[in-house]
């Protein structure tokens, strides 16, 4: 059972680059079930910091899709595009503590430094930043600043970050080796996902992050940032992915079809089956969600 001193607050945080697809509904349903089955609250956060790729129209479509499935938040949605002051404050805190620094490197610069160091870049894998612009290595060296990065060495990223995923079990990563000094503010002035999600999870009091398994690799970076900013670390549960016909993760980038909600009950049942939930016969959205809550509790996910 959940500890009484830590109430459950969950969230679903879609990026509005298009409508929800089948994989999105799995993540939304899982986060909703995890909060509701334990008497907690649930929020929707629109992660639209990447404004060139996001649109308000897509966000409104997503909210309508969630509403049709009975997945309605307990407070109005948050929009990351309106949260710039909070992210700026967090960056200022890191800079003041000597944990963030400006970077002048282009992608080509990073590739050249990696090649010189003999690093082999795996396709679709992270390309660790070699720390070229770290202050102790000469900083910008007269070049104009482009982005801001976390100094993982000073922030504790040189040691292993370990956590227990509620579905996947023990996880660990040395951030400095796996990804290097990652970006907090991009060269185009937009806020990076890692900083925005950490600041928002803390301010919204999120106790449990339930999201797709493709985001598991982000967890160590976020825990590192939470520690650097003095913020609490939520519990994490990463759900199974819905795969396309070629075995790749179903996503908007690979042409995933918009979620078919002609029959929302069947859409919810299909999403529940991906989560390994066996539902009793149901009639209507509310009854289906109640059955899914029963099945989620029966799974006995660790708290």
From TrEMBL:
- Any Pfam family hit: tRNA-synt_1c
Identify the residues that bind L-glutamate: 11-15, 47, 193, 211
Keyword Kinase listed? The answer is no
The record lists ATP as bound by 252
User: Which keywords accompany this UniProt record?
Assistant: Aminoacyl-tRNA synthetase, ATP-binding, Ligase, Metal-binding, Nucleotide-binding, Protein biosynthesis, Zinc
Gene3D superfamilies, from UniProt? HUPs
The record, for InterPro entries, names: Glu-Q_tRNA(Asp)_Synthase, Glu/Gln-tRNA-synth, Glu/Gln-tRNA-synth_Ib_cat-dom, GluQ/Sye, Rossmann-like_a/b/a_fold
Give the protein's biological function: Catalyzes the tRNA-independent activation of glutamate in presence of ATP and the subsequent transfer of glutamate onto a tRNA(Asp). Glutamate is transferred on the 2-amino-5-(4,5-dihydroxy-2-cyclopenten-1-yl) moiety of the queuosine in the wobble position of the QUC anticodon.
Protein's name according to its UniProt entry: Glutamyl-Q tRNA(Asp) synthetase
The organism is: Leptothrix discophora
